[in-house]
Amino acid sequence: MAKAFFRLQKVLRRTQFLLFFLTAAYLMAGSLLLLQRTRLVIQQSSRGTSANQALPVSDGMARGGIVDPRTLQNPHPGPRLLVGMDTMQDAVLDQWHSPQWLVSRNSELRQLRRRWFHRLISDQEPMQTAGFKATKHTVEHKGTYVGCFSDDSRERTLKGAVFYDLRKMTVSHCQEACAERAYTYAGLAYGAECYCGNRLPATASKPQECNSECKGEKGSLCGGVNRLSVYRVEEPRAGARPWRNVIYRGCFRAPENLTDTFQASLIQPNLTVEMCSEFCSKKEFPLAVIQGWECYCGYPTGRFSLRKGADSLLCSRTRNASSELQGKYCLVYQTPVQDTRCTDRKFLTTKSKVFVALSSFPGAGNTWARHLIEHATGYYTGSYYFDGALYNKGFKGEKDHWRSRRTICVKTHESGKTEIEMFDSAILLIRNPYKSLMAEFNRKYAGHLGYATDRNWKSKEWPDFVNSYASWWASHILDWLKYGKRLLIIHYEDLKQSLIPKLKEMVEFLNVTVSEDRLLCVENNRDGNFKRSGAKQKDFEPFTQEMKDLINRYILTVDEALRGRNFTGLPREYMPR
């Protein structure tokens, strides 16, 4: 019996060793095979295949469940029908294991290792913040580093000009922007926000509290959380005239008591617009008001709202004008200083009970409406899509999941029963289809701020674009009218013409209480950072008669549907041309 037991024990030991050997051999063979495949892929890539080449995505794949719609710029399926969806899905799944995918994945892993290595080094070598900045910034950047200061978003000291770049912000970039506007100081916060002004913040902070690395410049510090890294901007060369963007707002009836209405004043013989705007800019006020030889600085308020302009002739300051007339009207100019009474924004502290959509057809002004809503309510807006360009410009809700309910409303261009019924209510923004189509075509070929070229307009893509997108403009509105639970209809043209009344409607619909001064601040910053720039073609008519006939039929259909739901019909300017 003992002999048999010994033999069994011997066999089991041999089997255990054999299993261990086979497992080790299997793992080694797998590792060698993976290394060989990777080497082969890299060799194939070096022969001409781009490692970062994007996989082709069909127009309708988002509808088939293959691609997350948040990643698509155009969530609406194109005019082409999808044929053989099952076959296409198999082909796409195969591409996930293709050589191009492996190379892309290997590249991502290498970048992650680099980031880990840089973090490890920075942890092992604690940065002496004060000495580092005093030395490095003096050598590499224009201007002089002043120090780290506390920053209060509700009462910001550096408020002459504000801009964001959450991907490429550098110290030099901020300093140059402030220098162009002739400001004395440039401050950076959160690694990506730039502020300009003529007065230093009142409260200094510990040097080590400015510990955020610049998004576009490794090794440089750009402030921190509620902390500003402040620089004194390099003085312009002798004879160089500082540039300032002063905008004429118009002639307005003066308030009864100018001294009580405005916070600063100057009396100067032979006063010029430049002298008054420079004085108010240095005092950090967004408005420069001129009456005779008197200059006043301040904000739009209930007593001086800038809503009703007067004839410019009434503001003439000629000696022949009667003194009685001169005392009743004043000229108003916008200085480069930003009105910061409405620039502070945050996420909702508790999840919203009502899920609200800000719905529109692309090109209907959704981004502009988001700018107005955010500044009026003080809360970020979300998005069904992730647009890196908008996130980089300060729309921080872009990176928040659209279903988080931490934003006041969610941008969407979606239509269809399922996509609409997930929202409890919606603001439906409608714009003239002629204008919307041109705006979206400009965005597709020149981004949010540019204009498409003549070559784009004259190509065959423009007629195809109109044929497919014009029907989408109509179906988008009709679907929201049919499936929307609670709607507020806002026409883009009405919002532009009567900003404050329409914005009040939107804010009340969102169940937010807003002060009059905050709304006036929004009106003063109405354009935001997304007004198109560049040469705009005058008297440009890209629509053929055939296109107009098609669009006009959709206009009449939508107008009838709006009236059928007891909404106001489309504005007259939409009507057939």
UniProtKB/TrEMBL annotation:
<dbReference type="Pfam" id="PF01822">
    <property type="entry name" value="WSC"/>
</dbReference>
<dbReference type="InterPro" id="IPR027417">
    <property type="entry name" value="P-loop_NTPase"/>
</dbReference>
<keyword id="KW-0677">Repeat</keyword>
<feature type="domain" description="WSC">
    <location>
        <begin position="245"/>
        <end position="342"/>
    </location>
</feature>
<comment type="similarity">
    <text>Belongs to the WSCD family.</text>
</comment>
<protein>
    <submittedName>
        <fullName>WSCD1 protein</fullName>
    </submittedName>
</protein>
<dbReference type="InterPro" id="IPR002889">
    <property type="entry name" value="WSC_carb-bd"/>
</dbReference>
<dbReference type="Pfam" id="PF00685">
    <property type="entry name" value="Sulfotransfer_1"/>
</dbReference>
<feature type="domain" description="WSC">
    <location>
        <begin position="142"/>
        <end position="234"/>
    </location>
</feature>
<dbReference type="InterPro" id="IPR000863">
    <property type="entry name" value="Sulfotransferase_dom"/>
</dbReference>
<dbReference type="InterPro" id="IPR051589">
    <property type="entry name" value="Sialate-O-sulfotransferase"/>
</dbReference>
<dbReference type="GO" id="GO:0008146">
    <property type="term" value="F:sulfotransferase activity"/>
</dbReference>
